Fold Programmed cell death protein 4.
Amino acid sequence: MEKVTLERKMDVEAMLEDGVSEDEIVAEGATAPKVELMKKPADGERVKRKAKRLVKHNSGDRAPTNSMDFVVPHRRWKNSRRSRNGYGRGLPKKGGAGGKGVWGLPGSEIIEEDFEDQNDPNYDSDDKNIELKEVIPEVTPEEYYKRVEPIFLEYYEHGDTLDVAQSLYEETTDPLRPLITSIAIEIAMDHKPSHREMTSVLISDLYWRVISSRDITNGFDMLLKNLPDLILDTPEAPTILGNFIARAVADDCIPPRYVTNPEVEELNEHAIAALKRADTLLCMKKGWAHLDNVWGLGGPLRPVKIITKQMTLLLQEYMSSRDIKEAQRCILTLEVPHFHHELVYEAVVMALESINQSTEEALCALLKSLDDACIVSPLMMEQGFQRVFDDMTDIVLDVPLAYIMLDRFIERCSRAGFLSDKTIRNMPSRGRKRFVSEGDGGLFKPQIPTFARDN
Protein backbone atom coordinates (compact mmCIF):
# COMPACT_ATOMS: atom_id res chain seq x y z
CA MET A 1 0.00 0.00 0.00
CA GLU A 2 2.83 2.38 0.81
CA LYS A 3 4.41 1.59 -2.52
CA VAL A 4 1.23 2.47 -4.41
CA THR A 5 0.90 5.75 -2.58
CA LEU A 6 4.50 6.67 -3.30
CA GLU A 7 4.02 5.94 -6.98
CA ARG A 8 0.88 8.05 -7.02
CA LYS A 9 2.70 11.02 -5.49
CA MET A 10 5.50 10.72 -8.00
CA ASP A 11 3.00 10.66 -10.89
CA VAL A 12 1.31 13.84 -9.63
CA GLU A 13 4.60 15.69 -9.36
CA ALA A 14 5.58 14.57 -12.85
CA MET A 15 2.30 15.73 -14.29
CA LEU A 16 2.66 19.15 -12.66
CA GLU A 17 6.12 19.51 -14.13
CA ASP A 18 4.76 18.65 -17.59
CA GLY A 19 2.17 21.49 -17.37
CA VAL A 20 -0.95 19.45 -16.70
CA SER A 21 -3.61 21.51 -14.96
CA GLU A 22 -4.80 20.79 -11.51
CA ASP A 23 -8.38 20.22 -12.69
CA GLU A 24 -7.27 17.32 -14.82
CA ILE A 25 -5.32 15.89 -11.95
CA VAL A 26 -8.32 16.19 -9.62
CA ALA A 27 -10.61 14.62 -12.23
CA GLU A 28 -8.23 11.73 -12.69
CA GLY A 29 -7.83 11.31 -8.99
CA ALA A 30 -11.58 11.10 -8.51
CA THR A 31 -11.64 7.74 -10.25
CA ALA A 32 -8.87 6.30 -8.09
CA PRO A 33 -9.80 4.25 -5.07
CA LYS A 34 -9.62 5.84 -1.69
CA VAL A 35 -6.57 4.99 0.37
CA GLU A 36 -5.41 5.93 3.72
CA LEU A 37 -3.00 8.76 4.39
CA MET A 38 0.63 8.21 3.48
CA LYS A 39 2.84 6.80 6.14
CA LYS A 40 6.46 7.47 6.63
CA PRO A 41 8.48 4.88 4.67
CA ALA A 42 11.30 2.93 6.12
CA ASP A 43 14.82 4.20 5.90
CA GLY A 44 15.92 1.52 3.46
CA GLU A 45 13.07 2.10 1.11
CA ARG A 46 13.22 5.88 1.18
CA VAL A 47 13.77 7.51 -2.19
CA LYS A 48 15.92 10.54 -2.00
CA ARG A 49 14.34 13.14 -4.24
CA LYS A 50 14.28 16.87 -3.94
CA ALA A 51 10.92 17.89 -2.57
CA LYS A 52 8.91 20.24 -4.78
CA ARG A 53 7.58 23.35 -3.10
CA LEU A 54 3.86 23.66 -3.36
CA VAL A 55 2.09 26.93 -4.23
CA LYS A 56 1.35 29.07 -1.24
CA HIS A 57 -2.33 29.86 -0.79
CA ASN A 58 -4.02 32.62 1.07
CA SER A 59 -5.09 31.80 4.54
CA GLY A 60 -8.69 32.61 3.79
CA ASP A 61 -8.99 30.39 0.74
CA ARG A 62 -9.34 26.69 0.87
CA ALA A 63 -7.07 24.88 -1.52
CA PRO A 64 -8.65 22.20 -3.67
CA THR A 65 -7.85 18.62 -2.82
CA ASN A 66 -8.12 15.38 -4.68
CA SER A 67 -9.88 12.24 -3.55
CA MET A 68 -6.88 11.38 -1.37
CA ASP A 69 -6.89 14.83 0.33
CA PHE A 70 -3.72 15.77 -1.51
CA VAL A 71 -3.25 19.52 -1.81
CA VAL A 72 -3.17 20.68 -5.48
CA PRO A 73 -1.82 24.13 -6.34
CA HIS A 74 -4.02 26.74 -8.12
CA ARG A 75 -4.01 27.21 -11.89
CA ARG A 76 -1.07 29.13 -13.18
CA TRP A 77 -2.05 32.55 -14.66
CA LYS A 78 1.07 33.08 -16.68
CA ASN A 79 -0.48 32.83 -20.16
CA SER A 80 -4.01 33.97 -19.23
CA ARG A 81 -5.49 37.01 -21.00
CA ARG A 82 -7.67 37.79 -18.10
CA SER A 83 -6.84 40.92 -16.12
CA ARG A 84 -5.16 40.25 -12.79
CA ASN A 85 -6.33 43.44 -11.07
CA GLY A 86 -10.01 42.52 -11.04
CA TYR A 87 -11.02 45.00 -13.78
CA GLY A 88 -11.27 44.48 -17.51
CA ARG A 89 -9.00 46.16 -20.06
CA GLY A 90 -11.93 47.67 -21.95
CA LEU A 91 -11.76 45.25 -24.87
CA PRO A 92 -14.97 44.12 -26.59
CA LYS A 93 -16.18 40.58 -26.32
CA LYS A 94 -16.19 38.06 -29.12
CA GLY A 95 -19.75 38.92 -30.14
CA GLY A 96 -18.98 42.62 -30.25
CA ALA A 97 -20.71 43.43 -26.98
CA GLY A 98 -19.13 45.21 -24.07
CA GLY A 99 -15.97 47.21 -24.26
CA LYS A 100 -15.08 50.64 -22.99
CA GLY A 101 -18.08 52.95 -23.01
CA VAL A 102 -20.34 50.31 -24.62
CA TRP A 103 -23.40 48.64 -23.14
CA GLY A 104 -24.33 45.55 -25.12
CA LEU A 105 -24.34 44.88 -28.84
CA PRO A 106 -24.80 47.71 -31.36
CA GLY A 107 -28.52 48.19 -31.94
CA SER A 108 -29.55 46.38 -28.79
CA GLU A 109 -30.99 49.61 -27.41
CA ILE A 110 -33.88 49.48 -29.90
CA ILE A 111 -34.69 45.85 -29.19
CA GLU A 112 -37.38 45.37 -26.61
CA GLU A 113 -36.29 43.26 -23.69
CA ASP A 114 -38.16 40.02 -23.30
CA PHE A 115 -37.81 39.97 -19.56
CA GLU A 116 -37.77 43.08 -17.43
CA ASP A 117 -36.84 43.24 -13.83
CA GLN A 118 -39.64 44.51 -11.62
CA ASN A 119 -37.00 46.13 -9.40
CA ASP A 120 -35.80 48.26 -12.32
CA PRO A 121 -36.64 51.95 -11.74
CA ASN A 122 -37.79 52.18 -15.36
CA TYR A 123 -40.12 49.22 -15.04
CA ASP A 124 -43.77 50.05 -15.76
CA SER A 125 -46.41 47.39 -15.36
CA ASP A 126 -48.81 49.30 -17.65
CA ASP A 127 -46.55 48.73 -20.65
CA LYS A 128 -47.47 45.08 -20.92
CA ASN A 129 -50.44 43.64 -22.82
CA ILE A 130 -51.61 47.00 -24.18
CA GLU A 131 -53.64 47.17 -27.39
CA LEU A 132 -53.91 50.62 -29.00
CA LYS A 133 -57.03 51.48 -30.99
CA GLU A 134 -57.72 54.52 -33.14
CA VAL A 135 -60.37 56.75 -31.60
CA ILE A 136 -61.93 59.53 -33.69
CA PRO A 137 -63.33 62.28 -31.46
CA GLU A 138 -66.90 63.30 -32.15
CA VAL A 139 -67.29 66.73 -33.72
CA THR A 140 -70.18 68.89 -32.64
CA PRO A 141 -72.23 70.83 -35.24
CA GLU A 142 -70.78 74.10 -33.94
CA GLU A 143 -67.19 72.89 -34.39
CA TYR A 144 -68.02 71.49 -37.83
CA TYR A 145 -69.50 74.84 -38.89
CA LYS A 146 -66.26 76.59 -37.94
CA ARG A 147 -64.23 74.07 -39.96
CA VAL A 148 -66.19 74.18 -43.22
CA GLU A 149 -67.16 77.86 -43.31
CA PRO A 150 -63.74 78.94 -44.71
CA ILE A 151 -64.08 76.24 -47.39
CA PHE A 152 -67.32 77.74 -48.72
CA LEU A 153 -66.00 81.31 -48.53
CA GLU A 154 -62.91 80.32 -50.53
CA TYR A 155 -65.16 78.60 -53.06
CA TYR A 156 -66.82 81.94 -53.79
CA GLU A 157 -63.37 83.21 -54.81
CA HIS A 158 -62.06 80.37 -57.00
CA GLY A 159 -65.24 78.49 -57.99
CA ASP A 160 -63.55 75.04 -58.08
CA THR A 161 -66.14 72.47 -56.96
CA LEU A 162 -63.66 69.57 -57.11
CA ASP A 163 -61.41 71.24 -54.54
CA VAL A 164 -64.40 71.78 -52.24
CA ALA A 165 -65.44 68.14 -52.64
CA GLN A 166 -61.99 66.90 -51.61
CA SER A 167 -61.86 69.22 -48.59
CA LEU A 168 -65.34 68.26 -47.39
CA TYR A 169 -64.62 64.55 -47.87
CA GLU A 170 -61.66 64.80 -45.49
CA GLU A 171 -63.52 66.83 -42.86
CA THR A 172 -66.91 65.10 -42.88
CA THR A 173 -68.09 61.88 -41.28
CA ASP A 174 -71.38 60.12 -42.04
CA PRO A 175 -73.46 61.72 -39.25
CA LEU A 176 -72.36 65.21 -40.34
CA ARG A 177 -73.12 64.94 -44.07
CA PRO A 178 -76.61 66.52 -43.84
CA LEU A 179 -74.96 69.62 -42.39
CA ILE A 180 -73.16 70.32 -45.69
CA THR A 181 -76.38 71.40 -47.43
CA SER A 182 -77.73 73.39 -44.50
CA ILE A 183 -74.46 75.24 -43.81
CA ALA A 184 -73.88 76.05 -47.49
CA ILE A 185 -77.37 77.54 -47.89
CA GLU A 186 -77.16 79.47 -44.61
CA ILE A 187 -73.94 81.12 -45.78
CA ALA A 188 -75.39 81.81 -49.24
CA MET A 189 -78.38 83.62 -47.72
CA ASP A 190 -76.05 86.38 -46.55
CA HIS A 191 -74.41 86.78 -49.97
CA LYS A 192 -75.41 88.10 -53.37
CA PRO A 193 -77.39 86.18 -56.02
CA SER A 194 -74.29 85.13 -57.96
CA HIS A 195 -72.96 83.35 -54.86
CA ARG A 196 -76.33 81.64 -54.43
CA GLU A 197 -76.06 80.42 -58.00
CA MET A 198 -72.59 79.06 -57.21
CA THR A 199 -74.02 77.32 -54.14
CA SER A 200 -76.70 75.60 -56.24
CA VAL A 201 -74.01 74.45 -58.67
CA LEU A 202 -71.92 73.18 -55.75
CA ILE A 203 -74.78 71.12 -54.30
CA SER A 204 -75.37 69.58 -57.72
CA ASP A 205 -71.67 68.69 -58.09
CA LEU A 206 -71.42 67.24 -54.57
CA TYR A 207 -74.36 64.94 -55.26
CA TRP A 208 -73.14 61.30 -55.15
CA ARG A 209 -69.58 62.48 -54.59
CA VAL A 210 -69.78 63.52 -50.96
CA ILE A 211 -73.50 63.65 -50.14
CA SER A 212 -76.49 61.57 -51.20
CA SER A 213 -80.09 62.50 -51.94
CA ARG A 214 -81.01 61.51 -48.40
CA ASP A 215 -78.38 63.86 -46.97
CA ILE A 216 -79.70 66.76 -49.09
CA THR A 217 -83.30 66.23 -47.97
CA ASN A 218 -82.19 66.02 -44.34
CA GLY A 219 -80.33 69.30 -44.80
CA PHE A 220 -83.47 70.97 -46.17
CA ASP A 221 -85.44 69.59 -43.21
CA MET A 222 -83.01 71.31 -40.84
CA LEU A 223 -83.41 74.59 -42.71
CA LEU A 224 -87.22 74.39 -42.67
CA LYS A 225 -87.16 73.92 -38.90
CA ASN A 226 -84.71 76.81 -38.41
CA LEU A 227 -86.56 79.30 -40.63
CA PRO A 228 -88.01 81.25 -37.66
CA ASP A 229 -84.43 81.99 -36.56
CA LEU A 230 -83.05 82.57 -40.06
CA ILE A 231 -85.74 85.10 -40.90
CA LEU A 232 -84.43 87.40 -38.16
CA ASP A 233 -81.20 87.99 -40.10
CA THR A 234 -82.58 87.44 -43.61
CA PRO A 235 -86.22 88.53 -43.98
CA GLU A 236 -86.51 86.93 -47.45
CA ALA A 237 -85.23 83.56 -46.16
CA PRO A 238 -88.44 81.62 -47.09
CA THR A 239 -88.24 82.82 -50.70
CA ILE A 240 -84.53 82.04 -50.92
CA LEU A 241 -85.00 78.57 -49.44
CA GLY A 242 -87.89 77.90 -51.83
CA ASN A 243 -85.64 78.81 -54.77
CA PHE A 244 -82.95 76.42 -53.51
CA ILE A 245 -85.47 73.57 -53.13
CA ALA A 246 -86.87 74.12 -56.63
CA ARG A 247 -83.39 74.30 -58.12
CA ALA A 248 -82.36 71.06 -56.35
CA VAL A 249 -85.43 69.32 -57.82
CA ALA A 250 -84.59 70.64 -61.30
CA ASP A 251 -81.01 69.36 -60.91
CA ASP A 252 -82.32 65.87 -59.97
CA CYS A 253 -80.72 66.05 -56.53
CA ILE A 254 -83.97 65.41 -54.63
CA PRO A 255 -87.28 63.85 -55.79
CA PRO A 256 -90.22 66.16 -56.71
CA ARG A 257 -92.44 64.57 -54.06
CA TYR A 258 -90.37 66.28 -51.37
CA VAL A 259 -92.08 69.59 -52.21
CA THR A 260 -95.58 68.23 -51.64
CA ASN A 261 -94.79 65.65 -48.94
CA PRO A 262 -91.90 66.86 -46.78
CA GLU A 263 -90.69 64.66 -43.94
CA VAL A 264 -90.92 67.41 -41.36
CA GLU A 265 -93.66 66.55 -38.89
CA GLU A 266 -94.71 70.05 -37.81
CA LEU A 267 -94.29 72.80 -40.40
CA ASN A 268 -94.21 76.41 -39.28
CA GLU A 269 -95.74 79.16 -41.37
CA HIS A 270 -92.39 80.17 -42.86
CA ALA A 271 -91.66 76.59 -43.91
CA ILE A 272 -95.06 76.37 -45.60
CA ALA A 273 -94.33 79.61 -47.49
CA ALA A 274 -90.97 78.22 -48.68
CA LEU A 275 -92.54 75.00 -49.96
CA LYS A 276 -95.29 76.95 -51.73
CA ARG A 277 -92.63 79.07 -53.42
CA ALA A 278 -90.84 75.94 -54.65
CA ASP A 279 -94.10 74.37 -55.84
CA THR A 280 -95.02 77.54 -57.77
CA LEU A 281 -91.67 77.59 -59.58
CA LEU A 282 -91.94 73.92 -60.50
CA CYS A 283 -95.53 74.21 -61.75
CA MET A 284 -94.81 77.09 -64.15
CA LYS A 285 -94.93 76.42 -67.86
CA LYS A 286 -91.44 75.28 -68.82
CA GLY A 287 -90.54 76.07 -65.23
CA TRP A 288 -87.79 73.49 -64.94
CA ALA A 289 -85.97 74.96 -67.93
CA HIS A 290 -86.17 78.49 -66.51
CA LEU A 291 -84.92 77.39 -63.09
CA ASP A 292 -81.36 77.67 -64.37
CA ASN A 293 -81.91 81.43 -64.11
CA VAL A 294 -83.71 81.35 -60.78
CA TRP A 295 -80.94 83.53 -59.32
CA GLY A 296 -80.92 85.94 -62.24
CA LEU A 297 -78.90 86.26 -65.40
CA GLY A 298 -75.99 88.11 -63.85
CA GLY A 299 -72.71 86.92 -62.51
CA PRO A 300 -69.25 86.36 -63.95
CA LEU A 301 -70.10 82.77 -64.91
CA ARG A 302 -72.67 83.82 -67.51
CA PRO A 303 -71.74 83.93 -71.21
CA VAL A 304 -70.78 87.30 -72.67
CA LYS A 305 -73.64 87.25 -75.19
CA ILE A 306 -76.22 86.87 -72.44
CA ILE A 307 -74.74 89.74 -70.41
CA THR A 308 -74.61 91.98 -73.50
CA LYS A 309 -78.24 91.21 -74.28
CA GLN A 310 -79.24 92.01 -70.71
CA MET A 311 -77.49 95.39 -70.90
CA THR A 312 -79.28 96.25 -74.15
CA LEU A 313 -82.66 95.36 -72.64
CA LEU A 314 -81.78 97.40 -69.56
CA LEU A 315 -81.10 100.52 -71.66
CA GLN A 316 -84.29 100.07 -73.66
CA GLU A 317 -86.32 99.75 -70.46
CA TYR A 318 -84.66 102.87 -69.09
CA MET A 319 -85.54 104.86 -72.22
CA SER A 320 -89.16 103.87 -71.70
CA SER A 321 -89.38 104.64 -67.97
CA ARG A 322 -86.54 107.15 -67.46
CA ASP A 323 -86.14 105.63 -63.95
CA ILE A 324 -82.49 106.07 -63.02
CA LYS A 325 -82.79 104.26 -59.65
CA GLU A 326 -84.23 101.15 -61.25
CA ALA A 327 -81.54 101.21 -63.92
CA GLN A 328 -78.83 101.39 -61.27
CA ARG A 329 -80.37 98.47 -59.38
CA CYS A 330 -80.47 96.34 -62.52
CA ILE A 331 -76.85 97.17 -63.31
CA LEU A 332 -75.78 96.12 -59.82
CA THR A 333 -77.80 92.91 -60.18
CA LEU A 334 -75.72 91.90 -63.18
CA GLU A 335 -72.62 91.81 -60.92
CA VAL A 336 -70.13 92.35 -63.73
CA PRO A 337 -68.12 95.46 -62.77
CA HIS A 338 -65.31 94.34 -65.07
CA PHE A 339 -67.76 94.44 -68.03
CA HIS A 340 -69.27 97.90 -67.49
CA HIS A 341 -67.41 99.23 -70.52
CA GLU A 342 -69.93 97.28 -72.62
CA LEU A 343 -72.76 99.24 -70.98
CA VAL A 344 -71.07 102.55 -71.84
CA TYR A 345 -70.46 101.37 -75.40
CA GLU A 346 -74.10 100.37 -75.92
CA ALA A 347 -75.34 103.68 -74.44
CA VAL A 348 -73.16 105.82 -76.74
CA VAL A 349 -74.09 103.80 -79.84
CA MET A 350 -77.78 104.12 -78.91
CA ALA A 351 -77.36 107.90 -78.66
CA LEU A 352 -75.71 108.06 -82.10
CA GLU A 353 -78.36 105.89 -83.77
CA SER A 354 -81.30 107.77 -82.27
CA ILE A 355 -80.40 111.18 -83.77
CA ASN A 356 -82.66 112.61 -81.09
CA GLN A 357 -81.76 115.31 -78.63
CA SER A 358 -84.10 113.95 -75.93
CA THR A 359 -82.47 110.51 -76.11
CA GLU A 360 -79.03 112.06 -75.86
CA GLU A 361 -80.03 114.00 -72.75
CA ALA A 362 -81.49 110.90 -71.06
CA LEU A 363 -78.45 108.73 -71.78
CA CYS A 364 -76.07 111.49 -70.69
CA ALA A 365 -78.00 111.81 -67.40
CA LEU A 366 -77.75 108.02 -66.87
CA LEU A 367 -74.00 107.94 -67.45
CA LYS A 368 -73.49 110.90 -65.12
CA SER A 369 -75.53 109.21 -62.35
CA LEU A 370 -73.52 106.01 -62.73
CA ASP A 371 -70.29 108.00 -62.43
CA ASP A 372 -71.53 109.94 -59.39
CA ALA A 373 -72.67 106.73 -57.64
CA CYS A 374 -69.30 105.05 -58.41
CA ILE A 375 -71.12 102.19 -60.11
CA VAL A 376 -69.09 102.65 -63.30
CA SER A 377 -65.43 103.46 -62.70
CA PRO A 378 -63.61 106.16 -64.72
CA LEU A 379 -61.51 103.45 -66.34
CA MET A 380 -64.60 101.60 -67.58
CA MET A 381 -66.07 104.89 -68.80
CA GLU A 382 -62.91 105.69 -70.76
CA GLN A 383 -62.72 102.18 -72.26
CA GLY A 384 -66.35 102.34 -73.38
CA PHE A 385 -65.90 105.63 -75.24
CA GLN A 386 -62.59 104.44 -76.73
CA ARG A 387 -64.32 101.37 -78.16
CA VAL A 388 -66.82 103.67 -79.87
CA PHE A 389 -63.97 105.74 -81.31
CA ASP A 390 -62.32 102.61 -82.70
CA ASP A 391 -65.55 101.36 -84.34
CA MET A 392 -66.59 104.64 -85.96
CA THR A 393 -65.55 103.44 -89.42
CA ASP A 394 -68.17 100.67 -89.15
CA ILE A 395 -70.81 102.72 -87.34
CA VAL A 396 -70.75 105.45 -89.98
CA LEU A 397 -71.86 102.92 -92.60
CA ASP A 398 -75.19 102.51 -90.77
CA VAL A 399 -75.39 106.07 -89.43
CA PRO A 400 -73.98 108.58 -91.96
CA LEU A 401 -74.26 111.42 -89.43
CA ALA A 402 -72.39 109.43 -86.76
CA TYR A 403 -69.45 111.84 -86.54
CA ILE A 404 -71.72 114.86 -86.15
CA MET A 405 -73.83 113.11 -83.50
CA LEU A 406 -70.68 111.92 -81.69
CA ASP A 407 -69.29 115.45 -81.61
CA ARG A 408 -72.53 116.77 -80.14
CA PHE A 409 -72.83 113.94 -77.55
CA ILE A 410 -69.20 114.32 -76.43
CA GLU A 411 -69.75 118.05 -75.97
CA ARG A 412 -72.86 117.37 -73.86
CA CYS A 413 -71.04 114.83 -71.67
CA SER A 414 -68.11 117.20 -71.28
CA ARG A 415 -70.43 119.89 -69.94
CA ALA A 416 -71.87 117.30 -67.51
CA GLY A 417 -68.35 116.85 -66.12
CA PHE A 418 -67.82 113.08 -66.08
CA LEU A 419 -65.54 112.75 -69.12
CA SER A 420 -61.77 113.03 -68.76
CA ASP A 421 -59.66 115.32 -70.91
CA LYS A 422 -57.89 112.30 -72.38
CA THR A 423 -61.17 110.92 -73.70
CA ILE A 424 -62.10 114.26 -75.25
CA ARG A 425 -58.72 114.56 -76.96
CA ASN A 426 -58.97 111.04 -78.39
CA MET A 427 -62.27 111.77 -80.12
CA PRO A 428 -61.82 111.14 -83.87
CA SER A 429 -62.51 113.92 -86.40
CA ARG A 430 -63.56 113.41 -89.99
CA GLY A 431 -62.76 116.00 -92.70
CA ARG A 432 -65.84 117.82 -93.91
CA LYS A 433 -66.96 117.49 -97.47
CA ARG A 434 -65.71 120.45 -99.50
CA PHE A 435 -68.24 122.30 -101.59
CA VAL A 436 -67.75 124.21 -104.88
CA SER A 437 -68.28 127.59 -103.20
CA GLU A 438 -65.30 127.06 -100.85
CA GLY A 439 -62.48 127.92 -103.27
CA ASP A 440 -62.37 125.68 -106.25
CA GLY A 441 -65.85 126.11 -107.66
CA GLY A 442 -64.80 127.24 -111.17
CA LEU A 443 -61.99 124.76 -111.57
CA PHE A 444 -62.66 121.62 -113.50
CA LYS A 445 -60.34 118.88 -114.48
CA PRO A 446 -59.17 119.20 -118.06
CA GLN A 447 -60.56 116.69 -120.45
CA ILE A 448 -58.12 114.17 -121.81
CA PRO A 449 -58.17 114.31 -125.59
CA THR A 450 -59.12 111.15 -127.36
CA PHE A 451 -57.57 110.07 -130.60
CA ALA A 452 -59.40 108.13 -133.16
CA ARG A 453 -57.84 104.86 -134.07
CA ASP A 454 -56.73 104.65 -137.61
CA ASN A 455 -58.35 101.96 -139.54
